[in-house]
Amino acid sequence: MQLQQLAYFVAVAELRHFTRAAERVHVAQPSLSQQIRALERELGAELFRRARGNIALTDAGEALLPLARRILADTDTARLEVQELVQLRRGRVRLGATPSLCTGLLPDVLRAYHLQYPGIHLIIEEAGSRDLVREVATGNLDLALLILPLQSHDPALATTALLREELVVVSPASEPPLWEGGRLRIEDLRDQPLVMFRQGYDLREFTLGACRAAGFEPTFAVEGGEMDAVLGFVESGLGLAVVPRMVADRRDTVRVTRFADPGLHRTIGLGRRNDVEPPRAARELQRVLVDYLTRAADANDLPPGTRAIRTESGSGTGRRRRTSRSAASDVPPELESEDE
């Protein structure tokens, strides 16, 4: 049984005339008659009584007519819904991001995307890079904004470097500066009490790696919590913390101290499955993200302490690569000079 045969049957049933039905469905009348007879043979029953030019439905035809109409209507509905999804009128995107990126970058990007595609449902998951990698690899997320290089290798994952992010030290704004000249080195944190993020948090691993690369283990005054909690502990005078400048510059209750050259930086990238094409809505979100970063970079309007990573040709943002494990994961490879 074919949809075309059902459409021909409904046309004849409604018009009670083979020639006019053929005109409605834009087919020659003999072809329509052949398809109706083929449908009758398949069903094992006549659908029409043909007598002296009059066409009437048999009992089998009466039973089939509402079912055929429903099947054709459902087919039209399915076709329209798929077309709407392809044209980004409806659908969903599952995006993961680290906590600092959720507050420092995503609001502007998602607003730009929503203005273009208001019918797309955005689902945001906030987690550390390690958890986000797992969720992308298992198909629970379409895309993820995470920190590079990744600490685990997955050949199914591809990443695109997007931004370089500056890290700074925050202390209570109510207290005087701890360092003369306004800049410090990572070694200056050796004897300072630190407020440290929870286990599994990207900034925890990064800060520990930077301190160990400088030859010391940091002292924790408070351990545990995520960004808001850590900043709250700093504001209360419990210790210092290393945080992204894009987050720190938005808080007037903390004092921001930058690292002396070469500074402390890390790379922000976009991760996706390498072996499965993301949904159209997710691919459009990736395009909107890159376009937003490119325009913001050209207008000097990126979040504080970030700069776009350009391709070698200088046009566009980001470089796609397969994931790889750092040769020494405890030593951040991001300790390098930057043009600020």
TrEMBL record:
Gene3D superfamilies: 3.40.190.290, Winged helix-like DNA-binding domain superfamily/Winged helix DNA-binding domain (1.10.10.10). PROSITE patterns: HTH_LYSR. This is DNA-binding transcriptional LysR family regulator. The keyword Glycosyltransferase does not apply. SUPFAM superfamilies: Periplasmic binding protein-like II, Winged helix' DNA-binding domain. GO terms for cellular component: protein-DNA complex. Residues 300-340 are annotated as: Disordered. Keywords: DNA-binding, Transcription, Transcription regulation. The keyword Transcription applies. It comes from Actinopolymorpha rutila. GO terms for molecular function: DNA binding; DNA-binding transcription factor activity. InterPro entries: LysR_HTH_N, LysR_subst-bd, WH-like_DNA-bd_sf, WH_DNA-bd_sf.
